[in-house]
Structure formats: structure tokens, C-alpha cells
Amino acid sequence: MLFNQLGLSAELLRAVDAQGYTEATPIQQQSIPLILEGRDVLAGAQTGTGKTAGFTLPLLQQLQTAESGRKRRVRVLVLTPTRELAAQVAESVRTYGQHLPFGTAVIFGGVSINPQIDKLRRGVDIVVATPGRLLDHVQRGTIDLSGVDKLVLDEADRMLDMGFIRDIRKIIRALPEQRQTLLFSATFSKDIRRLAKDFLISPAEIQVAQENTTADRVRQVVHPVDRRRKRELLSHRIGAGDWRQVLVFTRTKHGANRLAEQLTDDGLKAVAIHGNKSQGARTRALADFKAGSVRVLVATDIAARGLDINRLPHVINYELPSTPEDYVHRIGRTARAGREGEAISLVCIDEHKLLRDIERLLNREIEKEVIPGYEPDPRIPAVPIKNGRSQRANGRGAGPRRDTKPGGPPPRNGQRKRTGGRRRRAS
Fold it and tell me: Is the same domain home to 228 and 175?
């Protein structure tokens, strides 16, 4: 189906055409008409399927067709789990709305709050925010959410994983009960369905791909290798293949810093990006990587859903994630917008259980390829992995390391309150 068959305005079609798009993706084909009808939507789509445009375009159209002459106020609120994803969504809003007179503000932590306050005071129609910083504005009284009639929860499963459920509930209590709510999630876990039951009214459900599947255009391969030779093999693959743009995932912030330094010592310009980096440093690292002045970007899972890099050819799992669903999100950074990509996992004997969990989730076995000269030593015993790190000296674990601010777990069954969650529409 073509975009010009979806009932979008001439201004939006002009912006879409400028990006080189003519045919809508499956998630766009299904979500755009439903959102334009004013329906609540519960949508499941793997990363890289075009879901951002799937909700951005119809929301802009709804603003465009609303009554004119209104004082500018926040009408659309989009919540995202990470700063990078918030910036990406806001950029999409500006891109597709470039021929429309709507103001957009992006709000997240790690930067000064004062420019955000100034922007909100001047008046905006659309706010894209992370939950923590948005609550700061709510508590300061620097944002008015009483006019919001469109709410988007983007990457809702990731927000739950990061402990944002309490913040989300506080924010929703500050919104009008009469509103359209859109929930986008890569997975439909029990917690997601409980969230949808609390916040959505008779939602239309969309599932454009089997849950927890990976993009068809991603070639996945596992290189078995000893733990101590991973960095050597990684440098070898990047150098031998003359790879110019590689995204590498580690489990911990300390591991990302150390690996970036080692790769730079190997002659491969690399930078790390994770939760302990300032927003300025994260923004510069990503910009340098996109521009090609940095060859390798080493990231923790904070980047698994928030990075949108055109034509990214290679994603490397230097360490497998502790949660198998994160594997899907990591490798979804490549093969976006119909392109092909390669996802390579360097797997040592410690990670065999993690690999089995991933293959069980995918319901398939990932191709194994031993690189000559890097054959694993069968005499090396496995070291159990706990809390994302191998247990080292004296059998002591390093303990959990978090890349996000701590938050409480989702409420248990029978204990959640629906105050401010469900709302009734006038018949």
C-alpha cells in the first residue's frame, strides 16, 4: 500500500516523499487508519519496522484537522524509555511535520532543565519525553498536561524493564481522562497486557510480526571463542573485513569503557556510550559515529532501542545479553528500512546457557562458525554468569550494574491501583 492511499494530507505526503518513501510498511498500513479513526491501539512490532512514522504521521494529521485558532498548548505526549529514543522520535516529528505549523519539545535528563522550561513557556503542541524528567517539570509546574488528548507509550516493554511503571502511572494521573492512547511494544508480556488493560479502552490490537522474531534481512552468526580472546577476534574481524561502521554491545558500563580503549589501542577509533556518560558526550559519540569519524561504537543496552543509524551494516554482541529479548532489540539496530545487515555474537563457554535461551526465544538455532586460529580451548571450564557478569576472583560476584536510574518493579497481581488509569468515554 502506498502512503497516498492512507488518507494523509498533502503536507505530510510531501514530507514523506522528501525522505524517499512511497510504500508504507505493514505497521504503518495497519496503524495509520486506526489512529486517524481515534481508536486506542495496542501495537506489537519488532524494531526497525517503521513504527515511529506509524504513529507520528496520523497524530500530525489529527492536529492539522483540529479546530484552528486555539492557543498553542501540549496536545500530544510521547513517552520513551531513553534519551536517544526521545531525540529520535522528536526528530521524526520535525521531519514529517516540516510543512505544518506545530511546535515540538524534547524533554529528557542529563542536560540543563532551563532551556526546556523556556521552550515550554513559548508554547508547544507536541512533547516527547522520558518519564523522569517529565515528572520534574510536572512537579515544578513548568508544563501543563491538562490539554493532552493523545498519549503514546513507545517501547513500553523497555520502560517497564527499566522500572518506570510508577512514573508512568503518576504522569497518567496528570492527564485528562478523555484521550486517545497508543501503546507500542516489541513484546506482549503479561505486564504489557496489564498495562494496556489499565490505560487503554477497547484497543485495536496490531501484531505485524511474530513476537520476539528478528528482521528477515539480518544474517545472524555465532563465533565460538574463548573469553580471553574475544577482543582479539573482534579486532581481527573488523580489520580483515574493513568494516567502517560497527556497533558493539557489552553487558556493563565498565566493560564498554575498557573495550573502547582496547580497540583504540588496536588502531580502531572507538568510543563508548552508556548511562554514566553525560548527554553531551553521548550525543557527540553518536554524531561522530554516524559521520564516520568514529569506526566503532561500544554500547550497553541503553542503546539497544534508542539508536537509529541509517545503513548500519554490522552489530556485534561482544557479550550476550542477560535477557534474551534484549538480543532481538540489539540486532534490530541493523537491517533497518528494508536494508540488509549482519549480527555477529562472540560466544564463550560461559555464555552457552544465554545462547540456548536466545535460540529458544527465537525458536531456531543460530548458525555457528569457528574462525580459524580462534578455536575455543575445550579444557577451559565454564564460569557462571550472574547479574550480567562472570563470577571472578574468590567466587565473588561483581553484583548488578544498572545503566538506568533505579525504579520499583511493576505492582503485583491484585495490588495495582487503577486510579487515573482507566477512563470512560461519553457514549
Answer: no
Burial of 213 (0-12, 13-18, 19+ CB in 10 A): middle
Query: How many folded domains does the chain comprise?
Result: 2
Please report which helix (H) or strand (E) contains residue 236, including its range. helix 230-241
The two beta strands, 385-386 and 389-390, are antiparallel
- CA distances to 66, 77, 225, 281, 410 from 190, rounded to whole Å, are 36, 25, 36, 36, 11
Q: How far apart are CA 52 and CA 25, in angstroms?
A: 11
CA–CA separation, 362 and 324 (whole Å): 9
- For residue 426, give every residue at least 6 positions away whose Cβ sits within 8 Å of its Cβ, in sequence order, or none: 178
Annotate 271-287 with b (16+ C-beta within 10 A) or e (fewer): bbbbbbbeeeebbebbe
Do 169 and 224 belong to one domain?
no
* Plot region of 348 (φ>0 → left; ψ -120 to 50 → alpha; else → beta): beta
d(CA 118, CA 181): 27
Of residues 329, 140, 337, 342, the one with CA closest to residue 245: 342
> Cell numbers of 192, please?
504489557
- If DSSP states are collapsed to H, E and C, what string results for 8-37? CCHHHHHHHHHCCCCECCHHHHHHHHHHHC
Tell me the pTM: 0.68
**Domain CATH number, residue 303:** 3.40.50.300
In 128-164, which residue ranges form alpha helices assigned H by DSSP? 131-140, 156-161
Rounded Cα–Cα distance for residues 306 and 80 (Å) = 9
Do 351 and 235 lie in a common domain?
yes
- With beta carbons less than 8 A apart as the criterion, state whether 96 and 13 touch: no
Q: Give the range of the structural domain holding residue 126, as residue numbers without chain letter.
A: 3-207
In the listed set 207, 236, 255, which residue is the last one of a domain according to the structure? Answer: 207
Res 305: pLDDT: 59
Average pLDDT per consecutive 10 residues, the chain (427 residues; last block may be shorter): 92 93 91 96 81 95 76 92 90 95 93 95 96 96 96 90 89 95 87 90 83 65 96 95 93 93 94 84 86 92 66 91 85 69 94 94 92 95 70 36 39 40 38
Q: What is the pLDDT of residue 416?
A: 39
| 422 in any annotated domain | no
Distance CA 188, CA 209 (A): 12
Do 200 and 242 lie in one domain? The reply is no
